[in-house]
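Hi,

I'm pasting everything inline rather than attaching a file, because the server keeps stripping attachments. The sequence lines come first, and each chain or strand is labelled.
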Amino acid sequence: MPELPEVETIVADLRPHLVGRTITRCELAFPTIVRHPEPEEFIDAVVGMRIESVGRRGKYILIRFDNNVLLVVHLGMTGQLRLVDAVSPLAKHTHAVFFLENNMQLRYRDTRRFGRLLLGTQEALLSSKKMPQLGPEPIDPEFAAEELYRRLRKRRTALKAVLLDQGAIAGVGNIYADESLHRARLRPDRIARTVSKRSAVRLHESLRESLLVAIANRGSSVDTYRDAWGEIGGQQEKLLVYGRAGEPCFTCGRPLSSIRIAGRTTVFCRTCQH
DNA sequence: TTAAATTCCTGTAAGC
DNA sequence: TGCTTACAGGAATTTA
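And the predicted assembly:
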């Protein structure tokens, strides 16, 4: 599923091909994928717009137009945003197509439809609560270990639940929460506020390392994730714990455990993580 | 106020 | 083989 590294890969790939392009037409095969504004208004507003920049905030893709309006794309679980030639056959579950003036199309596809599209100024989307307030970017050099420690101290829930909370830290999902906790040798069910400063520093480092390595490897295609060209990533072959329940821990050789935290399957090593 | 549970959704795979 | 059922999970919403 797309998390920060996967979204970052898509954004970096799309940027040079989208900046400066104009949307000449928009078709919504499944209009309810648009959450703001109403579908007709969405189409009217997006057509004729010229793309100024392509960015990311947490797991959100931000396509900015020249009048400060944003097209926001959240991929949910199975969302894919692909840039294809207009003549390429339409894949199943394609819910939105943005036609560009150079005969290319930006297509949004999403089997489970957990994803969504939004359009509006950042201020309008935030104030209308269509977009949530997000925590700091974990790979931002400004994001200090001290900041992570402060946020963990405030919470009486499982450490992993805090990592998954987009309002606490932006962009971390099930894969990289498990990966970074394993790297930091911390149990996912530890109550966040009981974590020492020393451990928080380790988790801060592990979080950054897990995400940056995954970006370098173009993300994890563990489920249906594909990049902007429809290609798989490479990180799925290098994951330490995610999806490896029952298999031996790479450090101690004992079988990895699986429990449920915050409704998610959680894999960790009972020997190496405390 | 915070935390936990529920809901949405379809493809896949396990079980009979 | 074919059918049924459980499971995967991001985040908005509801309940505790």
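The longest strand of chain A covers residues 51-57.

If the labels don't parse on your end, tell me and I'll reformat.
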